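Example 454.
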Amino acid sequence: MTVIGTGYLGATHAVCMAVLGFEVLGVDVDPAKVELLASGRVPFYEPGLPEKLQDALASGRLRFTTSFDEAAAFGDVHFVCVGTPQQPGSHAADLRYVDAAFTELARRIDRKTLLIGKSTVPVGTAARLAQLVRSVSPLGDELELAWNPEFLREGFAVEDTLHPDRLVFGVDSEWAERQLRVAFRPLLDEGTPLVVADTATAELVKVAANSFLATKISYINAMAEVCEATGADVNLLATALAYDDRIGGRFLKPGLGFGGGCLPKDIRAFRARAEELGVGQAVRFLDEVDQINQRRRSRTVDLVRELAGGSLQGARIAALGAAFKPNSDDVRDAPALDVARMLYLEGARVVVYDPEANANAHRVYPDLDYVGTLAEAVMDADVVVLLTEWDEFRRADPRDLGALVSGRRIVDGRHALDASRYRAAGWEYRALGRPAEAATAQLVENDKDSVAHA
Ligand code: UGA
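Predicted structure in complex with uridine-5'-diphosphate-glucuronic acid:
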Protein backbone atom coordinates (compact mmCIF):
# COMPACT_ATOMS: atom_id res chain seq x y z
CA MET A 1 0.00 0.00 0.00
CA THR A 2 1.02 3.62 -0.39
CA VAL A 3 0.35 6.51 1.97
CA ILE A 4 0.31 9.89 0.26
CA GLY A 5 1.13 12.78 2.61
CA THR A 6 3.41 12.18 5.60
CA GLY A 7 2.17 14.72 8.17
CA TYR A 8 0.77 13.81 11.60
CA LEU A 9 -1.81 11.52 10.06
CA GLY A 10 0.06 10.03 7.08
CA ALA A 11 3.38 9.36 8.80
CA THR A 12 1.61 7.60 11.67
CA HIS A 13 -0.60 5.60 9.31
CA ALA A 14 2.37 4.55 7.13
CA VAL A 15 4.45 3.47 10.12
CA CYS A 16 1.62 1.59 11.82
CA MET A 17 0.58 -0.23 8.65
CA ALA A 18 4.19 -1.40 8.20
CA VAL A 19 4.27 -2.49 11.86
CA LEU A 20 1.09 -4.49 11.20
CA GLY A 21 2.92 -6.39 8.45
CA PHE A 22 2.10 -4.58 5.18
CA GLU A 23 4.59 -3.39 2.55
CA VAL A 24 4.25 0.39 2.69
CA LEU A 25 5.54 3.22 0.54
CA GLY A 26 5.17 6.69 2.09
CA VAL A 27 4.95 9.54 -0.41
CA ASP A 28 5.39 13.26 0.10
CA VAL A 29 6.11 16.20 -2.19
CA ASP A 30 8.50 17.63 0.45
CA PRO A 31 11.95 16.04 -0.09
CA ALA A 32 13.17 17.23 3.34
CA LYS A 33 10.37 15.36 5.10
CA VAL A 34 10.99 12.23 3.04
CA GLU A 35 14.70 12.33 3.83
CA LEU A 36 14.07 12.76 7.57
CA LEU A 37 11.57 9.91 7.74
CA ALA A 38 13.76 7.62 5.63
CA SER A 39 16.60 8.23 8.07
CA GLY A 40 14.40 7.22 11.02
CA ARG A 41 13.51 10.67 12.32
CA VAL A 42 9.95 11.97 12.80
CA PRO A 43 9.60 15.64 11.72
CA PHE A 44 7.21 16.40 14.64
CA TYR A 45 6.80 15.41 18.29
CA GLU A 46 4.66 12.32 18.75
CA PRO A 47 5.36 10.01 21.71
CA GLY A 48 6.19 6.44 20.64
CA LEU A 49 6.29 7.16 16.90
CA PRO A 50 10.09 7.42 16.45
CA GLU A 51 10.59 3.95 17.97
CA LYS A 52 7.87 2.47 15.75
CA LEU A 53 9.36 4.21 12.68
CA GLN A 54 12.74 2.68 13.39
CA ASP A 55 11.20 -0.79 13.86
CA ALA A 56 9.29 -0.41 10.60
CA LEU A 57 12.37 0.74 8.66
CA ALA A 58 14.43 -2.09 10.12
CA SER A 59 11.78 -4.62 9.01
CA GLY A 60 12.36 -3.51 5.40
CA ARG A 61 8.60 -3.06 4.93
CA LEU A 62 8.60 0.75 4.96
CA ARG A 63 10.17 3.11 2.45
CA PHE A 64 9.61 6.75 1.50
CA THR A 65 9.71 8.56 -1.83
CA THR A 66 8.73 11.79 -3.56
CA SER A 67 7.88 9.95 -6.77
CA PHE A 68 4.24 9.54 -7.79
CA ASP A 69 5.40 7.26 -10.65
CA GLU A 70 6.88 4.91 -8.08
CA ALA A 71 3.77 5.14 -5.90
CA ALA A 72 1.37 4.35 -8.76
CA ALA A 73 3.45 1.35 -9.81
CA PHE A 74 3.80 0.06 -6.24
CA GLY A 75 0.37 0.28 -4.59
CA ASP A 76 -2.62 -2.06 -4.67
CA VAL A 77 -4.36 0.39 -2.37
CA HIS A 78 -3.45 4.06 -1.94
CA PHE A 79 -4.28 6.03 1.21
CA VAL A 80 -4.44 9.79 0.72
CA CYS A 81 -3.62 11.59 3.99
CA VAL A 82 -2.80 15.16 2.91
CA GLY A 83 -3.91 18.25 4.86
CA THR A 84 -7.17 20.17 4.43
CA PRO A 85 -6.44 23.50 6.16
CA GLN A 86 -8.85 26.41 6.42
CA GLN A 87 -8.86 28.58 3.29
CA PRO A 88 -7.34 32.01 3.88
CA GLY A 89 -10.14 34.57 4.16
CA SER A 90 -12.89 31.95 4.35
CA HIS A 91 -14.25 29.29 6.68
CA ALA A 92 -14.25 26.63 3.98
CA ALA A 93 -11.67 23.84 3.71
CA ASP A 94 -8.84 24.25 1.23
CA LEU A 95 -8.97 21.13 -0.93
CA ARG A 96 -6.13 21.91 -3.27
CA TYR A 97 -3.75 19.33 -1.74
CA VAL A 98 -6.41 16.61 -1.75
CA ASP A 99 -7.31 17.35 -5.37
CA ALA A 100 -3.65 17.41 -6.40
CA ALA A 101 -2.80 14.14 -4.65
CA PHE A 102 -5.73 12.25 -6.19
CA THR A 103 -5.13 13.72 -9.64
CA GLU A 104 -1.38 13.04 -9.66
CA LEU A 105 -1.97 9.47 -8.61
CA ALA A 106 -4.94 8.73 -10.85
CA ARG A 107 -3.15 10.04 -13.91
CA ARG A 108 -0.59 7.26 -13.50
CA ILE A 109 -2.86 4.35 -12.59
CA ASP A 110 -3.44 1.75 -15.30
CA ARG A 111 -4.45 -1.32 -13.27
CA LYS A 112 -7.34 -1.99 -10.89
CA THR A 113 -6.43 -0.41 -7.55
CA LEU A 114 -8.39 1.38 -4.83
CA LEU A 115 -7.86 5.01 -3.93
CA ILE A 116 -8.80 5.69 -0.30
CA GLY A 117 -9.20 9.15 1.18
CA LYS A 118 -8.42 9.58 4.88
CA SER A 119 -8.22 13.39 5.03
CA THR A 120 -11.07 15.29 6.71
CA VAL A 121 -13.15 16.74 3.88
CA PRO A 122 -16.50 18.45 3.32
CA VAL A 123 -19.30 15.97 2.65
CA GLY A 124 -19.62 15.32 -1.09
CA THR A 125 -15.89 15.53 -1.79
CA ALA A 126 -15.49 11.78 -2.42
CA ALA A 127 -18.28 11.77 -5.00
CA ARG A 128 -16.70 14.73 -6.79
CA LEU A 129 -13.23 13.18 -6.66
CA ALA A 130 -14.52 9.83 -7.98
CA GLN A 131 -15.55 11.60 -11.18
CA LEU A 132 -12.35 13.58 -11.33
CA VAL A 133 -10.01 10.58 -10.97
CA ARG A 134 -11.95 8.58 -13.57
CA SER A 135 -11.67 11.43 -16.02
CA VAL A 136 -7.87 11.59 -15.76
CA SER A 137 -6.91 7.94 -15.23
CA PRO A 138 -6.01 5.54 -18.09
CA LEU A 139 -8.22 3.06 -16.18
CA GLY A 140 -11.28 5.29 -16.64
CA ASP A 141 -14.52 4.18 -15.00
CA GLU A 142 -12.92 1.13 -13.44
CA LEU A 143 -10.96 3.27 -10.99
CA GLU A 144 -12.67 3.21 -7.58
CA LEU A 145 -12.48 5.51 -4.64
CA ALA A 146 -13.42 4.99 -0.99
CA TRP A 147 -13.37 7.11 2.16
CA ASN A 148 -11.94 5.91 5.46
CA PRO A 149 -11.95 8.75 8.01
CA GLU A 150 -9.30 8.85 10.68
CA PHE A 151 -9.98 9.61 14.34
CA LEU A 152 -6.50 9.67 15.83
CA ARG A 153 -5.57 12.23 18.47
CA GLU A 154 -2.17 13.89 18.45
CA GLY A 155 -0.19 12.68 21.43
CA PHE A 156 -1.91 9.27 21.22
CA ALA A 157 -1.51 8.77 17.48
CA VAL A 158 0.17 5.36 17.57
CA GLU A 159 -2.24 3.92 20.12
CA ASP A 160 -5.27 5.34 18.28
CA THR A 161 -4.06 3.95 14.94
CA LEU A 162 -3.21 0.47 16.21
CA HIS A 163 -6.27 0.24 18.49
CA PRO A 164 -8.96 2.56 17.13
CA ASP A 165 -12.42 2.90 18.74
CA ARG A 166 -13.98 2.02 15.41
CA LEU A 167 -13.32 1.80 11.68
CA VAL A 168 -15.55 3.48 9.13
CA PHE A 169 -15.48 2.40 5.46
CA GLY A 170 -17.28 4.63 2.98
CA VAL A 171 -17.59 2.55 -0.20
CA ASP A 172 -19.44 2.40 -3.49
CA SER A 173 -18.97 -1.33 -4.15
CA GLU A 174 -18.45 -4.71 -2.49
CA TRP A 175 -15.06 -4.90 -4.19
CA ALA A 176 -13.95 -1.67 -2.47
CA GLU A 177 -15.21 -2.99 0.88
CA ARG A 178 -13.20 -6.20 0.37
CA GLN A 179 -10.01 -4.22 -0.32
CA LEU A 180 -10.50 -2.21 2.85
CA ARG A 181 -11.20 -5.36 4.87
CA VAL A 182 -7.88 -6.79 3.66
CA ALA A 183 -6.03 -3.57 4.50
CA PHE A 184 -7.46 -3.49 8.03
CA ARG A 185 -7.59 -7.25 8.67
CA PRO A 186 -5.28 -7.16 11.73
CA LEU A 187 -7.54 -4.57 13.43
CA LEU A 188 -10.77 -6.30 12.41
CA ASP A 189 -9.42 -9.63 13.71
CA GLU A 190 -8.89 -7.90 17.06
CA GLY A 191 -12.61 -7.10 17.18
CA THR A 192 -12.49 -3.39 16.25
CA PRO A 193 -16.09 -2.29 15.52
CA LEU A 194 -16.68 -1.57 11.81
CA VAL A 195 -19.31 0.61 10.19
CA VAL A 196 -19.66 0.15 6.43
CA ALA A 197 -21.43 3.08 4.81
CA ASP A 198 -21.69 5.18 1.68
CA THR A 199 -18.95 7.73 1.13
CA ALA A 200 -21.08 10.73 2.17
CA THR A 201 -21.88 9.17 5.54
CA ALA A 202 -18.24 8.26 6.09
CA GLU A 203 -17.16 11.85 5.40
CA LEU A 204 -19.84 13.15 7.73
CA VAL A 205 -18.95 10.81 10.59
CA LYS A 206 -15.63 12.60 10.95
CA VAL A 207 -16.90 16.18 10.97
CA ALA A 208 -19.88 15.22 13.12
CA ALA A 209 -17.55 13.61 15.68
CA ASN A 210 -15.22 16.60 15.85
CA SER A 211 -18.18 19.01 16.01
CA PHE A 212 -19.66 17.04 18.89
CA LEU A 213 -16.37 17.10 20.80
CA ALA A 214 -15.97 20.84 20.21
CA THR A 215 -19.56 21.42 21.34
CA LYS A 216 -19.00 19.45 24.53
CA ILE A 217 -15.94 21.54 25.41
CA SER A 218 -17.70 24.81 24.63
CA TYR A 219 -20.74 23.68 26.60
CA ILE A 220 -18.77 23.36 29.82
CA ASN A 221 -16.92 26.60 29.05
CA ALA A 222 -20.29 28.35 28.58
CA MET A 223 -21.22 27.02 32.02
CA ALA A 224 -17.94 28.50 33.27
CA GLU A 225 -19.08 31.92 32.07
CA VAL A 226 -22.30 31.52 34.06
CA CYS A 227 -20.29 30.36 37.07
CA GLU A 228 -18.14 33.48 36.84
CA ALA A 229 -21.23 35.66 37.13
CA THR A 230 -22.58 33.79 40.14
CA GLY A 231 -19.62 32.68 42.28
CA ALA A 232 -20.27 29.04 41.40
CA ASP A 233 -17.39 26.64 40.66
CA VAL A 234 -17.32 25.08 37.19
CA ASN A 235 -14.93 22.33 38.27
CA LEU A 236 -17.36 21.00 40.84
CA LEU A 237 -20.19 21.47 38.36
CA ALA A 238 -18.32 19.40 35.73
CA THR A 239 -17.50 16.74 38.30
CA ALA A 240 -21.15 16.44 39.29
CA LEU A 241 -22.33 16.35 35.66
CA ALA A 242 -19.81 13.66 34.79
CA TYR A 243 -21.36 11.15 37.23
CA ASP A 244 -24.31 10.97 34.86
CA ASP A 245 -23.17 8.27 32.41
CA ARG A 246 -25.32 9.81 29.71
CA ILE A 247 -23.20 12.96 29.92
CA GLY A 248 -19.80 11.48 30.83
CA GLY A 249 -16.69 13.33 31.94
CA ARG A 250 -14.50 13.12 28.84
CA PHE A 251 -14.12 16.38 26.89
CA LEU A 252 -15.90 18.14 29.72
CA LYS A 253 -12.76 19.76 31.05
CA PRO A 254 -13.28 23.51 31.36
CA GLY A 255 -10.53 26.02 30.72
CA LEU A 256 -8.90 27.77 27.82
CA GLY A 257 -10.76 25.72 25.25
CA PHE A 258 -9.90 23.87 22.10
CA GLY A 259 -7.38 24.56 19.37
CA GLY A 260 -5.12 22.59 17.04
CA GLY A 261 -5.16 21.71 13.39
CA CYS A 262 -8.51 19.91 13.54
CA LEU A 263 -11.40 20.97 15.79
CA PRO A 264 -11.44 24.72 14.99
CA LYS A 265 -11.13 24.40 11.22
CA ASP A 266 -13.43 21.39 11.03
CA ILE A 267 -16.38 23.14 12.71
CA ARG A 268 -15.89 26.15 10.43
CA ALA A 269 -15.64 24.04 7.27
CA PHE A 270 -18.75 22.12 8.34
CA ARG A 271 -20.66 25.40 8.72
CA ALA A 272 -19.47 26.56 5.30
CA ARG A 273 -20.42 23.27 3.63
CA ALA A 274 -23.83 23.17 5.33
CA GLU A 275 -24.54 26.68 3.99
CA GLU A 276 -23.66 25.51 0.46
CA LEU A 277 -26.04 22.58 0.86
CA GLY A 278 -28.86 24.85 2.03
CA VAL A 279 -28.90 23.42 5.57
CA GLY A 280 -26.81 26.10 7.24
CA GLN A 281 -29.42 26.54 9.96
CA ALA A 282 -28.90 22.96 11.18
CA VAL A 283 -25.35 23.66 12.31
CA ARG A 284 -25.54 27.39 12.99
CA PHE A 285 -24.93 26.58 16.67
CA LEU A 286 -21.34 25.76 15.70
CA ASP A 287 -20.78 29.52 15.35
CA GLU A 288 -21.67 29.86 19.02
CA VAL A 289 -19.40 26.94 19.86
CA ASP A 290 -16.57 28.78 18.08
CA GLN A 291 -17.32 32.10 19.77
CA ILE A 292 -17.56 30.63 23.28
CA ASN A 293 -14.20 29.04 22.58
CA GLN A 294 -12.62 32.31 21.39
CA ARG A 295 -13.95 34.18 24.45
CA ARG A 296 -12.00 31.81 26.73
CA ARG A 297 -8.81 33.28 25.33
CA SER A 298 -9.74 36.91 25.99
CA ARG A 299 -11.14 36.02 29.42
CA THR A 300 -7.82 34.40 30.31
CA VAL A 301 -6.07 37.64 29.34
CA ASP A 302 -8.59 39.52 31.55
CA LEU A 303 -7.70 37.33 34.52
CA VAL A 304 -3.96 37.84 34.01
CA ARG A 305 -4.50 41.60 33.71
CA GLU A 306 -6.55 41.58 36.89
CA LEU A 307 -3.80 39.76 38.78
CA ALA A 308 -1.20 42.13 37.32
CA GLY A 309 -3.04 44.97 39.04
CA GLY A 310 -5.23 46.24 36.21
CA SER A 311 -2.64 46.85 33.48
CA LEU A 312 -0.32 44.58 31.55
CA GLN A 313 1.96 47.42 30.47
CA GLY A 314 5.48 46.40 31.49
CA ALA A 315 4.29 43.39 33.50
CA ARG A 316 6.51 40.33 33.37
CA ILE A 317 4.37 37.31 32.54
CA ALA A 318 5.52 33.69 32.54
CA ALA A 319 3.51 31.83 29.89
CA LEU A 320 3.69 28.10 30.59
CA GLY A 321 2.94 26.23 27.39
CA ALA A 322 2.57 27.10 23.72
CA ALA A 323 1.32 23.85 22.17
CA PHE A 324 -2.44 23.43 21.66
CA LYS A 325 -2.36 20.55 24.13
CA PRO A 326 0.24 18.58 26.08
CA ASN A 327 2.33 15.83 24.45
CA SER A 328 2.36 17.73 21.18
CA ASP A 329 4.58 20.35 19.57
CA ASP A 330 1.71 21.52 17.37
CA VAL A 331 0.94 25.24 17.66
CA ARG A 332 -1.70 25.47 14.93
CA ASP A 333 -4.54 27.61 16.31
CA ALA A 334 -3.07 27.04 19.78
CA PRO A 335 -5.05 28.85 22.50
CA ALA A 336 -1.83 29.03 24.56
CA LEU A 337 0.14 30.90 21.96
CA ASP A 338 -2.81 33.13 21.15
CA VAL A 339 -3.06 34.21 24.79
CA ALA A 340 0.71 34.81 24.98
CA ARG A 341 0.44 36.99 21.86
CA MET A 342 -2.51 38.98 23.25
CA LEU A 343 -0.64 39.61 26.51
CA TYR A 344 2.36 40.83 24.51
CA LEU A 345 0.19 43.13 22.41
CA GLU A 346 -1.09 44.74 25.63
CA GLY A 347 2.45 45.64 26.60
CA ALA A 348 3.45 42.72 28.81
CA ARG A 349 6.92 41.21 28.65
CA VAL A 350 5.98 37.61 27.94
CA VAL A 351 8.42 34.77 28.54
CA VAL A 352 7.24 31.51 27.03
CA TYR A 353 8.35 28.00 27.92
CA ASP A 354 6.97 24.86 26.33
CA PRO A 355 8.75 21.51 26.79
CA GLU A 356 8.43 20.68 23.07
CA ALA A 357 6.82 23.50 21.10
CA ASN A 358 9.23 26.42 21.59
CA ALA A 359 10.76 26.09 18.12
CA ASN A 360 7.41 25.91 16.31
CA ALA A 361 6.03 28.77 18.41
CA HIS A 362 9.09 30.91 17.69
CA ARG A 363 8.55 30.46 13.95
CA VAL A 364 4.96 31.78 14.29
CA TYR A 365 5.57 34.53 16.88
CA PRO A 366 9.27 35.47 16.91
CA ASP A 367 8.53 38.60 19.02
CA LEU A 368 7.91 36.66 22.23
CA ASP A 369 10.82 35.60 24.47
CA TYR A 370 11.34 31.85 24.61
CA VAL A 371 13.34 30.08 27.31
CA GLY A 372 14.45 26.48 27.73
CA THR A 373 13.36 25.73 31.31
CA LEU A 374 10.43 26.25 33.64
CA ALA A 375 12.68 27.97 36.19
CA GLU A 376 13.89 30.54 33.64
CA ALA A 377 10.30 31.23 32.58
CA VAL A 378 8.97 31.99 36.06
CA MET A 379 12.07 33.87 37.25
CA ASP A 380 10.94 37.32 38.50
CA ALA A 381 7.48 36.90 36.98
CA ASP A 382 4.71 39.20 38.19
CA VAL A 383 2.09 36.68 37.08
CA VAL A 384 2.41 33.06 35.96
CA VAL A 385 -0.19 31.74 33.52
CA LEU A 386 -0.52 28.04 32.81
CA LEU A 387 -1.70 27.63 29.21
CA THR A 388 -0.89 24.00 28.27
CA GLU A 389 -1.21 21.32 30.93
CA TRP A 390 2.10 19.49 30.49
CA ASP A 391 2.91 17.05 33.32
CA GLU A 392 6.00 19.07 34.12
CA PHE A 393 3.77 22.01 35.11
CA ARG A 394 1.30 19.85 37.04
CA ARG A 395 4.11 18.26 39.01
CA ALA A 396 5.95 21.50 39.86
CA ASP A 397 6.08 22.36 43.55
CA PRO A 398 4.32 25.67 44.26
CA ARG A 399 6.85 26.42 47.02
CA ASP A 400 9.80 26.00 44.62
CA LEU A 401 8.13 28.17 41.99
CA GLY A 402 7.18 30.70 44.68
CA ALA A 403 10.85 31.20 45.52
CA LEU A 404 11.59 32.30 41.95
CA VAL A 405 8.75 34.66 41.07
CA SER A 406 8.45 38.30 41.90
CA GLY A 407 4.79 37.92 42.93
CA ARG A 408 2.94 34.68 43.80
CA ARG A 409 0.09 35.08 41.38
CA ILE A 410 -1.05 32.33 39.04
CA VAL A 411 -3.79 31.91 36.46
CA ASP A 412 -4.50 28.23 35.82
CA GLY A 413 -5.85 28.36 32.28
CA ARG A 414 -6.33 24.58 32.16
CA HIS A 415 -7.71 23.74 35.63
CA ALA A 416 -4.67 21.51 35.91
CA LEU A 417 -3.21 22.55 39.26
CA ASP A 418 -4.23 21.83 42.83
CA ALA A 419 -5.65 25.19 43.89
CA SER A 420 -5.44 24.40 47.60
CA ARG A 421 -1.72 23.56 47.38
CA TYR A 422 -1.01 26.82 45.60
CA ARG A 423 -3.09 28.83 48.05
CA ALA A 424 -1.41 27.07 50.98
CA ALA A 425 1.96 28.09 49.52
CA GLY A 426 0.86 31.71 49.53
CA TRP A 427 -0.20 32.05 45.90
CA GLU A 428 -3.13 34.04 44.65
CA TYR A 429 -4.69 31.33 42.45
CA ARG A 430 -7.28 32.10 39.77
CA ALA A 431 -8.99 29.95 37.15
CA LEU A 432 -11.79 30.66 34.70
CA GLY A 433 -15.19 29.76 36.15
CA ARG A 434 -13.96 29.37 39.70
CA PRO A 435 -14.44 31.80 42.57
CA ALA A 436 -11.47 34.00 43.46
CA GLU A 437 -11.36 32.51 46.95
CA ALA A 438 -11.72 28.83 47.85
CA ALA A 439 -15.39 27.82 47.89
CA THR A 440 -16.58 26.58 51.27
CA ALA A 441 -17.82 23.18 50.07
CA GLN A 442 -15.43 21.31 47.74
CA LEU A 443 -16.27 17.83 48.83
CA VAL A 444 -16.07 15.01 46.32
CA GLU A 445 -16.43 11.75 48.26
CA ASN A 446 -15.77 8.22 47.00
CA ASP A 447 -14.66 9.71 43.73
CA LYS A 448 -13.54 7.00 41.31
CA ASP A 449 -13.56 8.43 37.86
CA SER A 450 -14.65 12.04 37.74
CA VAL A 451 -13.39 14.76 35.42
CA ALA A 452 -11.32 15.97 38.33
CA HIS A 453 -9.11 12.99 37.64
CA ALA A 454 -9.67 12.72 33.89
C1 UGA B 1 -9.07 15.79 17.47
C2 UGA B 1 -10.04 14.63 17.79
O1 UGA B 1 -10.06 14.39 19.20
C3 UGA B 1 -9.59 13.36 17.06
O2 UGA B 1 -10.52 12.32 17.30
C4 UGA B 1 -9.51 13.66 15.57
O3 UGA B 1 -9.06 12.52 14.84
C5 UGA B 1 -8.53 14.80 15.35
O4 UGA B 1 -8.99 15.97 16.06
C6 UGA B 1 -8.49 15.09 13.86
O5 UGA B 1 -9.48 15.59 13.34
O6 UGA B 1 -7.51 14.72 13.21
P1 UGA B 1 -6.65 16.50 18.38
O7 UGA B 1 -6.76 17.69 17.47
O8 UGA B 1 -5.38 15.72 18.40
O9 UGA B 1 -7.79 15.43 18.01
O10 UGA B 1 -6.92 17.05 19.84
P2 UGA B 1 -7.94 16.73 21.05
O11 UGA B 1 -7.34 15.76 21.98
O12 UGA B 1 -9.28 16.45 20.51
O13 UGA B 1 -7.96 18.16 21.76
C7 UGA B 1 -8.44 19.31 21.07
C8 UGA B 1 -8.40 20.53 21.92
O14 UGA B 1 -9.44 20.49 22.89
C9 UGA B 1 -7.12 20.77 22.71
O15 UGA B 1 -6.75 22.13 22.55
C10 UGA B 1 -7.50 20.46 24.15
O16 UGA B 1 -6.74 21.21 25.05
C11 UGA B 1 -8.96 20.88 24.16
N1 UGA B 1 -9.79 20.18 25.18
C12 UGA B 1 -9.98 18.84 25.13
C13 UGA B 1 -10.42 20.93 26.16
O17 UGA B 1 -10.28 22.16 26.23
N2 UGA B 1 -11.21 20.29 27.09
C14 UGA B 1 -11.42 18.96 27.05
O18 UGA B 1 -12.15 18.44 27.91
C15 UGA B 1 -10.77 18.20 26.06
